[in-house]
Amino acid sequence: MSTLLDKLLLHASKYAPFSHKQKWRIGMRDEISFWDQHIAKNYVPRNGQFPSTEGQARTAPDTPLQDTFVQLLAWTNDPVLRILDVGSGPFTRVGKTMPGRTLEVTAVDPLSEEYKKLFTKHAVRPPVIPIEGAGETLHQLFPADHFHFAHANNCLDHGFDPVESVSQMVQVVRPGGYVYLRHEVNVAETAGYMGMHQWNFLLDANGDFIIRDKKRVVNMNKHLGRGVRITSQHEGDFLVTTIHRAPQ
Ligand SMILES: C[S@@+](CC[C@H](N)C(=O)[O-])C[C@H]1O[C@@H](n2cnc3c(N)ncnc32)[C@H](O)[C@@H]1O
User: Fold this and answer.
1) Is the shortest distance between the CB of 159 and ligand 1 below 6 Å?
2) Which residues, in sequence order, are bridge partners of residue 234?
3) What is the dihedral of CA 203, 160, 24, 41, to 10 degrees?
4) Ligand 1: does its nearest atom lie under 6 Å from the Cβ of 42?
5) pTM: predicted TM-score of the whole model, two decimal places
6) What's the CA gap between 75 and 61, in Å, rounded?
7) How many CB atoms within 10 Å of residue 13?
8) Residue 136 Cβ contacting ligand 1 at under 6 Å
9) What does the pLDDT look like over 99-139, one tens digit per residue?
10) The architecture CATH gives domain 4-245
11) Largest alpha-carbon pair distance within the chain?
12) Domain extent listing, the chain
């Protein structure tokens, strides 16, 4: 649970010249507190029923893989498909089954140890336990060209360096595979650069995918270069970006 000091620091993080890592640590307390309450409300069955469809879908081991992601796996006939969810939170939202294939879903989150304490506290057990890691450290966890598909939802903009996170996601995906990113447009501006919300994901006037904070602006189309094809679209308040790694 967040203390009064945590809340004061979180508010101060909007204005004080803290580094990204300091703001991340301040925001982390708030994130854990959010999931503590969110798990209690949505993931703890009452009278044998889940209180929300989110709790039911993310807890079931046989939830089908989302259609959008199935389409992004059409390039391969491999019987076993390796899927990575970066910044998964305690319960990955990625589906766990696909007809005719075996899915190996790996979830990674920097707060995994804190989430494990919440699993014990609330007596819940997700079908995929997140392993400890961040988008920026994927290359320490996985070999290059390893996954068929990599996913990140509403998380990389919470990190220290999302440009590095996206680059590493591309590296750990196999040639021919896809990276899928879904983040709220300009979330750091909207949140006033408070706590973990430090980066903005947006499109420029040419439709190029941009990541920026107050000091740095990176055109990801140029940064990732010729080895990928990037497509983006707005879905409500979110920017959905798909990065196709060129086959070798
Ligand atoms: C709002 S939650 C979203 C969780 C999940 N993706 C979902 O859609 O439910 C943001 C998550 O991003 C994680 N996060 C923070 N910094 C990160 C980083 N550098 N790399 C990857 N994930 C990070 C947090 O620990 C938290 O679990």
Assistant:
1) yes
2) 239
3) 60
4) no
5) 0.94
6) 25
7) 24
8) yes
9) 999 999 999 999 999 999 999 999 999 999 999 999 999 99
10) 3-Layer(aba) Sandwich (3.40)
11) 54
12) 4-245
The runs of H, that is alpha helices, within the chain are: 4-12, 20-42, 53-59, 67-71, 112-122, 138-141, 162-172, 187-190, 220-224
What residues does 183 pair with on adjacent strands? 239
Q: How many residues does the chain have?
A: 248
Ligand 1 centroid to Cα of residue 47, in Å, is 31
Strand-strand pairing, 238-245 and 217-219: unpaired
What's the confidence (pLDDT) of residue 206?
Answer: 96
Structure tokens belonging to residue 105: 């879903």
Cβ pair 138, 108 in contact under 8 A: yes
pLDDT tens profile 17-32: 777 777 777 778 889 9
For residue 193, which of 8, 11, 14 has the smallest C-alpha distance?
14
* Distance separating alpha carbons of residues 45 and 32, to the nearest angstrom: 20
Whole-number Å distance, alpha carbon 100 to ligand 1 midpoint, is: 30
Find the radius of gyration of the CA atoms of the chain.
18
The alpha carbon of 234 and the centre of ligand 1 are apart by a number of angstroms equal to 20
3-state class (DSSP) for residue 130: coil
